[in-house]
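can u pls check wat happens w/ magnesium ion
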Amino acid sequence: MKKGIALAVVLGMLLCGCSAGQNNDKTSKADVSVQSQVSEESKKEESKLPEPESRDVFAMDTYMVLKAYGTNAKKALEQAETEIQRLESLFSVKLRDSDISKINATSGNPVTVNVSTRTAIAKAIEIGDMTDGALDITVYPLVREWGFTTGDSDNEPSYKIPEQWLIDWHLGNVGYDRIILNGNIVTLPTQFEIDLGSVAKGYATDAVVQILDENGIDSALINLGGNVYALGRKPDNSKWKVGIQNPLDTDKVICSVSVENQAVITSGNYERFFEADGKKYWHIIDPKTGYPADNGIISATVIGSSGLDCDALSTALFVMGTEKAIDFCKKHKEIDAVLVTKDMEKIYVTDGLTKNITMEDDLKYEVIKR
Ligand code: ADP
Ligand code: MG
């Protein structure tokens, strides 16, 4: 994300702080309406509440907006920012001293890592198992080969379609099940490299929520570059409304979902991509083919209590494609999901969400029954 563009985005987010993705008008309306449409009576009530504290952070290659209500909010958000920066310094593939860089630079040899790094890797392996390898953090050499290295905000991206022999060669070094975890010691097979881009913001989301909790905050909206977590309710006691971006027109949303103590996390093909020969290539790679995952889904949103799970699963559902993702949702009632198929032909919504979703522009959806 270029910083100039991102700044405009963050200004928007300061107003609405609610979009699963970039800021957009409709979402702004959705959440700003909390302020602009409240009755005089509830305005009076709100004025008795403490002012929301807001903090914007640039980390993990994205702009983040943290908004919290309560007496300790300022202190809590300061701590949250420190924690996000700490996690970035561990997880970044670009910073030379990060745990991940150390692991990648010495693949074949054991590396002792911070407990946060160990936990994130362990969770990624667990979800790799759950998703039949759709989530595979060892896909990194291919991510880089396509030019989608994460954390590269200061440099122009070097997108390219790799030659087939290179893709085949890298595919030989992909397989999350070959990561060896022994306590805090991580060992990769030689030539392997990992990246936590698919789970880092989700991990950070949970860490921030924990800090807010410890500070007694019971109302907050945190937006880590489109990875949203709604803590408690809004000060007027209504649920938070989070917009899900329209993958074909990112100035719009397809719907908004009302949530409370839940993460709303989207993986889409419209955030990082390039076009070559009239075809679009994006940053989520199918570990089976080495190509951008193109299995029918253009946007997968997962809603649930854990940011880490939702982040990992949104990437995985995107990779799985329509049929497998629907099957997965049928088996996992602990999460809700909104799946959008190619050209927005269909929108699938899990049954747990139907009471809490408002569609835009008369869009229709099919329910995934469980
Ligand atoms: P975003 O970072 O845009 O929120 P995701 O959470 O879906 O999106 O993560 C995408 C990132 O994860 C990519 O930029 C890349 O670093 C990494 N990645 C790409 N494909 C996979 C995959 N199949 N499994 C695990 N990580 C992946
Ligand atoms: Mg993800």
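Residues 3-44+221-368 form a domain with the T-fold fold (CATH 3.10.520.10).
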